[in-house]
Amino acid sequence: MFKFETYTQEAHAFVNKVALALGTDDPSQASRVITAFFHALRDRISTEESLHFISQLPFFLRAVYVDGWKLSPKNIRAGNLEEFINTVRVRCGYTAIKDLGNDLNAERTLRQLISVIREYVDQGELDDIIAQLPDEIGDLFERTEV
Predict the structure, then answer these.
(1) Cα gap 18→32, rounded to integer Å
(2) I want to staple 59 with a disulfide (CB 3.0 to 4.6 A). Which of 7, 49, 65, 98 is the partner?
(3) What is the CATH number that goes with domain 10-16+25-140?
(4) What's the predicted TM-score (pTM) here?
């Protein structure tokens, strides 16, 4: 039997943790940042790595990650941190200013999101993701105090 209630509760718990880490009481804002980050990340790491990553996430978040995903043998160029943040902004859409703010706040927001992801994804998997990213972007995954 499919456990919709359990999966929904797990997703809500994750989103609420992210909202708390971001300092907002708006779960929609947290959801937008999660989705935008996932979609920007999946375009910069291998399909195999993406599948390893999402296997450790709550079930409904896997759906968020793969929503609209067009598998391609080549990912887009990883780019630098500024390009990555701009990609996340574009994926946030018209709420990007509210969701991310300036570059410094956007970087802080992404680090806080990753701090929650750390509760679900083991360090070995995060290290594998970091290895596929330029240092500037990989540095977002460093442990930080929230």
Answers:
(1) 11
(2) 7
(3) 1.10.490.110
(4) 0.91
